[in-house]
Amino acid sequence: MSSSSTELKLALAKRVLSRVGSIATTIMLVQTIVHNYIPRELYAYLFFGLKNMFTNFSKQLTMVINEFDGLVKNKIYEAATIYLANKLSPHINRLKISKTAKEKYFNITMERNEEVIDVYNGQTFKWIWLCRQTESKNFYNPRDMDSAEKSIIRSFELTFHKKNKDLVLNSYLTYIMEEATLQKHKNKTIKIHTVGYEKKFCLHNMWKSVNFYHPATFDTIVMDSNQKDMILKDLEKFMTRKEYYWEVGKAWKRGYLLFGPPGTGKSSLIAAIASYLNFDIYDLELTKVTRNSDLRKLLVATTNKSILVIEDIDCTINLEANLVNRAINFHSNDFYQSESMITLSGLLNFIDGLWSSCGGERIIIFTTNHIEKLDPALLRPGRMDVHIHMTYCTPCGFKLLATNYLGIKDHKFFEEIEELIDILNVTPAEVAEQLLKEHEVEDSLKGLINFLHKKMKEKEEANGVS
Predict the structure, then answer these.
(1) Residues 377, 352: one domain?
(2) What phi and psi, each to the nearest 5 degrees, are found at residue 410?
(3) β-bridge mates for residue 12, sequence order
(4) Angle 292-300/344-352 helices, nearest 10 degrees?
(5) CA of 92: how far to CAs of 112, 116, 122, 300, 409, in Å?
(6) What is the C-alpha separation between 445 and 398, in angstroms, rounded?
(7) HSE toward the beta carbon, residue 72, CA cutoff 13 A
(8) Which residues contact 163 (CB under 8 A, 6 or more apart)?
(9) What is the dihedral of CA 174, 281, 108, 63, to 10 degrees?
(10) Which listed residue, 11, 106, 121, 253, has the most CB atoms within 10 A of its CB?
């Protein structure tokens, strides 16, 4: 009896395996026919038609959140990336983790194709992060002017019950963006960005960044106290006037011009402003940008809550002829030559035209050693709203440097040093360099006195010659 039962089971298993094999063979044959004989367009039409048919019977709704919305980054995508980093399940299979030398926290994010379940107001929401590889030379995304340069398309898929559509649109996504803003501010490390010129035609990759650690603060920079207070009050007023800028019809941005001799602390002031506001810095070297259209794309690719820095603007404006000559050396086409130059008009449109309103809460800082060389059109309010004169070192500035570098507030040599500084044109950078040369306080001050006497002798000799 048992032998007969075993034989029946074996026969049944053979029949099942035979039918499975036949089905598998049929599927492979159908796949071969589809791929070899059915046009790709017809195949895609049939596939999506069947998919939509089954979707109509589903109670689930899926929202796709792409990384880019036209020319700019999708704020919902950015917020979801930050928000979901704190929602990773213990059962997740893969995740990405990183940490730079001076960051306080680990940076943990989802890995591609991983799933995260979130619960909000008692409802369940499923997130999946997708990355799709494309062939750069054949790919074209009509929403993105630089899609031909992309090789990876990133997006989130948010799936939930259809009855929760209004909850998602009216509450859940707003909650995610608010939580992401708080988390980003809490863990933010200031970054400095520079243009990635090898990929400057690829919008999402135009800027390259590194973490920015600069010790300068408003407590340590050498500057007249009244001028320092004026800058702080202006920054505070700017930060709290979002609605006011909107009401009067102005873009929410502020322009600063820092002018003065080299070594007077322009770069330190920029670092202090970035630290005070917790804003990223975008360092734009205009000498490397060859077209007005590139300026617009670079502006669009910056983020809100950022500082755009254009140094030595007086040198940049005079480069128009050099840029044309450089274009002529490489291309003879007249149209290319006309496009391969930065004009004053292009720069003005960049900082104060229609494109400057793409985004908000931005500060643009220009620096120059020679304000007299700047075109008056650049200096007017709306472009360079606040002009800050960075002066030579003063006696008060020297005392602050002595406190910062030597840890002292008074010394028997102070009176002589202050008298010399008061009549000489010596920069804070020169004074700081002398204070750094020796380990002992008295040796440092003596070295500074010798340096100042040498400067005085040079000044007297120059006056004698003249």
Answers:
(1) yes
(2) -160, 155
(3) none
(4) 20
(5) 12, 8, 22, 36, 58
(6) 11
(7) 14
(8) none
(9) 30
(10) 253
* Residue 456, domain extent: 395-465
CB atoms within 10 A of CB 257: 21
Dist. CA 270–CA 199, nearest whole Å: 27
pTM: 0.67
* Distance in angstroms (rounded) separating the CA atoms of residues 381 and 392: 26
Whether residue 15 is contained in a domain is answered as: no
pLDDT of residue 174: 94
Give the DSSP per-residue string, 301-313: TSPSSEEEEE--H
Contact 131, 154 (CB under 8 A): yes
pLDDT of residue 44: 62
Residues 399 and 289 reside in one and the same domain: no
Residue-wise pLDDT tens digits, 235-272: 999 999 988 888 888 888 899 999 999 999 999 999 99
Residue 436 and residue 385 share a domain: no
Q: Which residues of 198-226 are buried (b: 16+ CB within 10 A; e: fewer)?
A: eebebbbebbeeeebeeebebeebbbeee
Q: Decide if 8 is inside a domain.
A: no
Find how far residue 55's CA is from the centre of its chain: 39
E-strand ranges in 144-276 read: 152-161, 191-195, 207-211, 253-259
Joined tokens for residue 160: 């939930």
Whether 30 maps to a domain, the answer reads no
Q: What are the structure tokens assigned to 435, written together? A: 């204070």
Same domain, 458 and 365: no
Q: Are residues 162 and 224 in the same domain?
A: no
